[in-house]
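Minutes, project check-in

Agenda point 3 was the complex the collaborators sent over. CS summarized: three entities, 1063 residues total, and the question is how they sit relative to each other. Sequences were read into the notes so everyone works from the same version.
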Amino acid sequence: MAISQVAIPEVAPASAPHVVLGKKTAKKKRVIGVGGWLLRVGLAVLFLFPILFMFVSSLKPDQQIFGDLSSIAAFLPIGNISMDNYAAVFDRVPAARFLVNSIGISAITVAAGILVNSLAAFALSRMRVRGKTIILTLIIATLIVPFETLALPLVWWVNQLPSFELTELGFMFTKGWIDTYQVQIIPFIANAFSIYLFHQYFESIPKELDEAARMDGAGWFRIYRQVVMPLSGPAIATVAILTFLPAWNSYLWPLMVVQTEELRPVMVGVQYFFQLNVSWGEVMAYSTLITLPVVALFIAFQRSFVNSIASSGVKG
Amino acid sequence: MRHAKKRLIVASLVATSLVATMAGCAPSGAGGSDGKNGELTIWTHNGGNTEELAAVQAIVDGYNESQDETTVKLQAFPQASYNDSVIAAAASGKLPCIVDIDGPNVPNWAWAKYLTPLDLSVDLDENLPSTLGIWNGETYSVGYYDVALAMFARKSVLAEHGIRVATIDEPWTQEEFGDALEALKADGTWKNPLDIGTGDVGEWYPYAYSPLLQSFGGDLINRDDFQSADGVLNGPEALEWAEWMQSLATDGYIATKSGADSALDFQNNVTAIQYGGSWAAANNAAALGDDLAVMPSVDLGEGTKIGGGSWQWGVTTGCANPEAAMDYLSYSLSPENIAAVSVATATIPATDAAAALVPGFEEGGNLAIFREFSAKSAVLRPETPAYPFIATEFTKATQDIINGGDPQSTLDAAVKAIDANIKSNGGYTQK
Amino acid sequence: MTTTLERPPAASAPRPARSIRPKRDRTSKTENLAGLAMLAPAVLLLALFIFIPAILAFGLAFTNARLISPYPAIFVGLDNFVRLFADAAFFRALLNVAYFAVVVVPLQAGLALVMAILVNKKVRGTTFFRTVYFLPVVTSMVVVSLLWLFMYRQDGLINVIIERVTMGLVTGPDWLNDTSTSMPAIILMSVWQGVGFHMIIWLSGLQTIPADLYEAADLDGVTAWQRFRYITWPGLSATRSLILVTITIQALSLFTQISVMTQGGPLNSTTTVVYEAVESGFAQQETGYASAISLVFFVIVLLISVVQRFLSREKA
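CS then shared the predicted structure for the full assembly.
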């Protein structure tokens, strides 16, 4: 069932007499335009300088980083510049392994999360389910519990859960999820923030689309899959980015449940550089390395921010 | 609503039984399954510290080659978060057979029944006392090395301002130190001439500042019975210490929050005197060459006192093969092994026999001075299971004092909290 | 024309004791079940990994549980709460987070909206600006805190700028070490770090406003302010409610910046409720007391969120 056959109600334009744009209004528009640009650039500088600092410092030896801190040189790649810190990072820490771990864990968490959370939000927003207000409130209530509060009971609890592992004797049931990949993924798939975000977004998709689809005989899951989700590009992109971040930044949890080095994610890796004599340049190099995947993901998902409903493909 | 009510009742029953089980299960000690099938795991805090890790790995490899009943595996964790990892593992019952522990935490872990008393085939009398973790009459841990604290300065700067270079037999007195700081501050080159590392939170505060307290005559807790801090942490000597610390800040000699790296600031001449650890000596020496003066800490009344006790190794309860663990530890304590670790980390070797094998620690060597500092003035942080609590209270009290809080009431509040904590844990006596 | 029904003889079949229930609609039952099925994975995961540990954690509030101890925890009733309500640090923490939330919520939400509008235009370089504005959110907290710690020093960058701009008339304070400026310093840094996150959410909300509304408005020659007030602002009502609730919860749960930058000081001027809970639970090993703090925190924030949702729903 193609979307283009569905008609959405035309929005009546605000009725007002047509006004010809005068010269004064045009000039005012240009001033606002320039002002907007100044604001944009000003904000960009404000937000850019720490990244600049991080990257530039990653090229300097430790003593120079601290020496340059008191002047504008902190943001300039001058002095004793080299890639030594990056080489040292890979010597000190299995950075590549950590990166692969984090990318895998975060990607799976996000993908599974989008599915699970949008399904829940769809049910809460467009279907008649008994007790859905209470369920939504309970779900939002889980946003309030700070993770640090849950950490210890959760550690104990996940260790009571059954698991299985592949040994020489075949699949064996064991107890406990400690020191696995799944313990870093599964507890974080369902996420109240994503559900809430999808929920608010779905509320703005006209329910008439559903009705039309149902009249064509579509079941609920089909409506979800073929009507609502394709229109939710911006929401999916937003949820993907905003849930990738906490997954990528997760630090306390892996510290507590991951014991073997091969399973550790990137944030635990940062701590490797903080021993008695901190190697600051390497910290900066490592931090630069771990920022790259997230930025890449963000840029990739930017295209999905394109407005789906508002694009003219949906006109009846 | 009937459904909701029913669910609530079921939930509460489940919750109560879970809490009960957990309360009963969790503190039952380490309860691991490590040590079986001839395999033994060691956890250590030096992830990212390539030299130390390599040295310990070499010992492990040597042991594995020397016999074939047990294979030992080494798992490294980053130091900054090591304690959290161990505690989480204990909470889920998955500790390895051997762990290393920061010295002052040993009584706490021993009391919590994470550690079992050591039963080694080597004589521990030879070890520096600060490398042994003793509580309640039993030895629970042993370390390969110790570290010391010193005052670093530039000889040229001291000479320029007429400040005597302190020696171990004649350390600076409180007045001398005050005069020196006044002269340096008047110079104007350094906004805060002294750096005592106020920006380094964590174990640094108790490690570096409680010896200063002890040099005034105070202490963190009454060491007769370890039951109360009243009178020692808030008595007249402690008040003197607190007022002195506060004056350092109000006179502008120290920054209330120092930079992120005291050694680098010192090397860049942002500060004139650094109160730092022996681990910073190598980098300072590399940057300053012969101009570096390594001096003992200040004698504030009761003699120079510096912190003692560093990372030590212990065996966990619940290890399935404690004999193998003890065997490994005994092997690792040979003079050659201790020397190897000490060389890799530039730390003070735990035994004289090992010291003889480490270049720099012979008479007049550039590192020997730290061994002297340690032997003469090292004091241990209180060997009590209450230590983690005392440490946090002391850190907070010191921060508040340096930031201008009223010294007497701050110290009184700390004492009150510490005493209450000890009482609520039944005096931390052995169970 | 009505047909008069013959009254049945009084002695015939007795009237039923209660009214007969209407037969339940088959499609609404399917809808209910389908909805529950869609909700099931998310609800199950949330129940397993948040509800259960939360109940455990809150249950510990009534015991004297310790992080590590040879003794099992025993029930102590309300002792922890009595101690909590006599603790000056806790009340200072409440005050601090209230102050923080009251300032940050409008400031960060408002600034994020301005930025979202600035980057919503399909002008050249929009992707660049969006990425730059988002960079503080993805940069490692370690790097961010190092830089800001340095910038906030008495002789740091911020005071240097103030001095230049006011030509030496105003000397900046020692931001993080002065009890009156420590919280504002944290506020500035937090807003700087978090605004990109909410900008993304506003952006996805802006995508739901149909472009033809703007086109029609442009034809009528409305001013930028009128566009905003009559089209954008009403169109964002769902997003507004999401942002308000989540930013409030995040503001009240302030922890990481405090832990890294000020450790609650100087003199408790920046301590927060979550920081107190983590300090007493992890550092001081008093898990029972920390759970009591968390439980009180949870109840307070729940009440605030419920009130917020109620108020914002009425407007919509």
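Noted in discussion: The CA atoms of residues 23 and 421 of chain B lie 20 Å apart.
Follow-up: revisit at the next meeting once the mutant set is ready.
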